[in-house]
Each structure stands twice: as C-alpha cells, then as structure tokens.
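Morning run. Coffee first, then this:
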Amino acid sequence: MPDNLHWHTELKVLVPKSGVIGLHANSMNIDNVFLNGLPVRFKFYSQHQQFEIEKNWGSITCIEAAEAAGSAYFSSLEREMAPDLLIFCDKATSAESAVQDPADTEKVGQIIPSECKPDDVNKNAQQENVKLVRIEYWLEKPEVGVHFMGSSLHTNNQLRRAHCWFPCVDFGLQRCCYDLEFTVDSKYVAVSNGTLLCQVITKDDPSSKTYVYCVNIPVAAEFITLAVGPFEVLPDPHNGVVSHMCMPSNLSKLQCTVSFFHTVFSYYEEYLAATFPFGSYKQVFIDSETALSSTCVGASMSIFSSQLLYDERVIDQVISTRIKLANALAQQWFGIYITAETANDGWLLDGLAGFLTDCFIKRFLGNNEARYRRYKANEAVCKVDVDGATALSLSGAAAELYGTQAIGVLGKIRSWKAVAILQMLEKQMGPESFRKILQRIVHKAEDVIRASRTLSTKEFRHLANKIGNLERPFLKEFFPRWVESCGCPVLRMGLSYNKRRNMIELAVLRGCTSNMSSKSAPARGTVSGEFQAGDDGWPGMMSVRVYELDGMYDHPSLPMAGDTCQLLEIQCHSKLAARRIQRPKKGGKGDGSDDNGEVTAALDTRMGLESPLLWLRADPEMEYLAQIQIHQPVQMWISQLEKDKDVVAQLQAIATLCSFPRLSFSIVNALNSCLIDPKVFWRVRIESAFALAKTATEADPPKRSLPAGSTTNLDLEGVQTVKSMIS
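And here it is:
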C-alpha cells in the first residue's frame, strides 16, 4: 500500500445565510475546493496548530499534573467539535467576519439530510441554497482514522475518527446517504458499506479496478467504513445477503467460524419480525497485527480481527467469537439503523443491542451460559457503580463527555448496566410484551413517512406503559432511579428459624453501592448535583425463595423502598416429626461427635435436623441489579451447591464457601464433588477449581489434601492452565 492516499469527496450542502460551510476534516492536505464546479476560497484549521502547552510539566505536583492533563483532554475534545474546514460561498465573506464560533452549526451550514420530504416547508427556497461541494485532498502517512500495513488497509471510526479520512459533519445526529467509489489495484478487493453496484475496470489503467457501493439508507459518518486487501470472498451458503471475507491463509478457519452465522441472522429477523434493514451484510476479518480492536462496526459491514477465527480443533474460543459476531449484527438494527435521538439516549440503543445478543446466547448457547454471563456482568456492575460516571443518562453530561463515556472499562460497565436495566423491565412486563415493544420500534423505523429513525428514552418509556402494561407511577420512579442515578442496592440478610411458630425470621439491611460523598463530589464530566446518589430506595418487591423439605416456595415479600432495616416473617410449609436427640457419648464432645470430627459440620447437621429449611435465596431470577449477602449456616450453602441445579445458585454458594476463614473438610469435599461431577455446568466446575486452589496453601498443609478416593489432582499449575484457557 502507498504511504499517500488521494481522495475526493462530494457533498450536497444547504448553505446558511452566513455563506460559510463548516466541515470536520482533520489530518488532511486540502488541494482544491469546488462549489457547483467552480473553485472557491476555503480556510483549513489544523488541530496541531490549535494545541497549546498551558503548563510547565516539570514544575508542578502530581495532582496538578493530573488536573492539567484532564483539562487538556477535555479541551481537545471541545476543539474536535469545531469545524476544521471553512468554505466561503460568498466572495464578500472573510474568514475573520464570517464565523465567530466555528462550532455554531447554524452559521456554518449542514449537509442536506436525506430524510427531507417533498412537502417540506420552503422547499423551493431550500433547493436554491443547496450547493454541490467537491473537495480534493490527500492523506500522508495517516495515523488515525485509516490504517494500512503491508497489503491491507482498513478504517476505524471509533470516537469520531471518520473525519480523519474524509471531510464530513462527524456528528451522530447528522445522517445522509452515500455513494462510495474506491479505485484499487485489481489484485485487491475493496469492501465498504451498502450494496455493491458494480466493479469497473477502466480502459486507461487496466491494472486498477473501481468498486461502486451505494448506501441508500441515511447513516451517520462514523458508520462509514472501508477495508482493502487481497481478501478471499466466501458467500454464505444459507443466506445470499451475507458475505464473509478474510486473508487467503485464513480461509479454512473462516469456513469453520461462520458456519453458524445464518442461524443468528435468521433468529434476529424472526424475533424482530422484520427483514435485515440494509441490502447486504459483510464480515471482514483482517490481520490481527493491523486491527486496532477486535470489532469495528459500520453500516451493513463489520470488521473483525483474525484472532477471532478458529478451526475445528479449537473449542474454548467458539463461544466468545460467536457472541462478538452476534453483537455486531445486533448493532446493525439498534445503533446504526435506529439511532439515539440525543446523546443521553445512547444507553438505550446500546442496551437493546446487548439485550438482543443475550437472547441469542440463551437460544443457541444455552440458558446456563446466559445466566452465568448475566450474573458475572451484574457482579461487575455492582462493584463499579459507585459514582456519577456510571449514570446512564444525565442532562448535559453526555454532551460534555463527547462520547468518551462509551469507551474503555467504564464503557463496558455502562453497556452491562443498560442491558441489566432492560432485562429488569422484561421481567416486570413479561418476555412477549417486551418483544412486541422491540417489534414496534423496528416497524416504526421502517415507515417511509417518518422523518427520522431515532429512539428516545421518553418514547421507550411510553411504549413500556402502552404495550408492556407497566403502571406510570412505577415507570416514573424506575427510570430516574436506575437510568439517571448511580448505585445499586446492597442487601445484607440474616435468618433465624422459630420452631414454635414454624416461621423464618429474616432480617434485611439495605444499602447502596454508591458513595454517599458522591453528592458533594460529582464525577468528572457530569453536571454538578444532577445525578442522585445514596440509598433512596428502588421501586418494586424482591422475591425470596425458600427451599424446604417438602419443596420450593417463593415469597415476593421484600420491599425495595422504605425503611433500610426490615424484619420479615416467612411462614414455612414443611413440618418436622418429633426426633429423639441422641445423648453425647461418655468421653466424647457435647455435640455427639468424636475427637476426629469437626464441630462446625456437626452443629450444622443438628441445625438442619431441627429445621425444615434447607437453604434460602433472594432474587433467584435476577429481577434486580443488586448485591446480595445472605448469612446462613455452612450446611445450607453446601446443600445449595449440591442440590440446586441453577448455575447462579451454585456460583453464589462457591463464592461464599471459599470466603470462610477456615475451610472445613465438608466444604472441601463439596467443592471437589462439584468439580468432578460431569453433570455440573463446566463454568461452575472451573469456579470450583479456583476455590479449591485457594485451599492449597503452605500455611495450612492439611487442607491441601482432598478426600480419600478422589482421583482429581488440583495442583496449582493445573489450575493456572484452566485459568489461561478461559481468559
């Protein structure tokens, strides 16, 4: 690939009264600008020229350096929002007098949105002000936006980097259609967005080929992508709309990797009761050395790293690869085809794409895998959701952060939180009602009369009331508490069995993961005092599930609002027959065990004999994004691990058992039994291996040995091997 790339871009622009057109165009060398075929004056502002060193970094403290770096970072984000290229349509207009504020889009013009209808007001007047702008430019060894190495080239538009390789209005709310033409060497394949109309070999240069694409659905500039290389094209044998591409050396892996893809494609269309919104869908796998990230999503196209490819001999990478491919496809509907109405509504589209991906996991990878991933994601959210940085929708905050809240670790946490909130709503209204809401959103977007395909939190809230039959008082409390606030509920529970009344007395102390000091110290990038923190309660009731000798019983009796300290009385359904208490042997211990037994296990056994309660769980269906700590006897946790078939219950039991300061023989035996049981979900068995590894310490040699008769060797090296396989 050459170091210099030569391009030209043509745009239909509605010229404002000021006569100045402003475009984002960073890291470019502008040669000529034409307006309706005639050359015009322009002024280009380089981002490098605007940067100024405000501090002498060698003479300040670490705290001052951190504050100065943060200030410089946000200042650079603000500068990026201002146009880099000003085009003067009126000869009398000067660069100094035309625009006082380059970020004022009303004064610098805008690209004509393709959603304009023939009956728009003042159509004739607008058509007179529509001009065709042609910009000729070239890129010299580009470092951002477009990347090439060896014989391949690809773009990565993460965080508004589209304007680093073609002039545009790089703003998510600005959408238009595109006609794309790329001329490359005939041995290369150029893959871009939309439908491939034709491939043209010019007479002047037979060694070159031009690929012509058309995107007839308005999309934002950030979703325009390009990949060029000597790709092998693999049409999907089950779906003519889908094509897969990779380097020639990875063709066999590609065939194995995408063999499942037609199932997820068909499932999404069936679930949403709608066809794929774009004319075609292309998946391109580029060399991992070239890729900046594992996934780059564009309109009707996704670029992946070749590290996601696998062959028939690989089994540990199958699940993660399929989930990433399924999520990229879900974003075609929610995020690209349907976009957020405002920056504060971005969480909703991100959550809907994640929710659709979770439906695929549950359908094709199993309910155990789906519940395991949701439990781990909720656990991570509860640990991190402590301040305003994880609040999903704040008035003005999203605009101040300029999209940076969606990247990095916090971006992943916010995505998990958005999915968890939507799953809570699904639990409240039922899966079929929630599915109807998604179908209504997609069908509305397909309406050609509708001016735009956007979705807002307010509209989704209305659909939850109208279709989901959720009461308005509940929704009025739900969205501010979960979407506009930070923090998750923390529940600490302790239980006691009243034998005379055959009743469980459950004490509950409710708290919040957010720091109380957050009210006075909001997170950077948030509007001061806007987000709520602390424990104000949450709407709804949490269910408590009691496992007794006679069966399982649900009690939706725990209110999530009101007093932070509550005492619940839960009636037991099972009754115990009178049992004769065995007297302790002479010379033995008071609980009837010999000197070689364990006091803890014996006490737990007696407690189990005197109570019909086997174990207790709170929020077993994960209807809340909450951190729950239950204090119950060790034997109950062991019973939960051994007898409860739910993977979440098993994971909770393992986490609690390995947290005890001294692990008894019964705990080690239960963990080992879980590990060697082939009927247990494989991820739970790995968690058991990690828990047993914690017992293998030199500080307590007797606990390193496993029960007699066990054939499992749990040396630390083996555990590390297992850990490396799943990481």
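The first helix runs from residue 47 to 50. Good start to the day.
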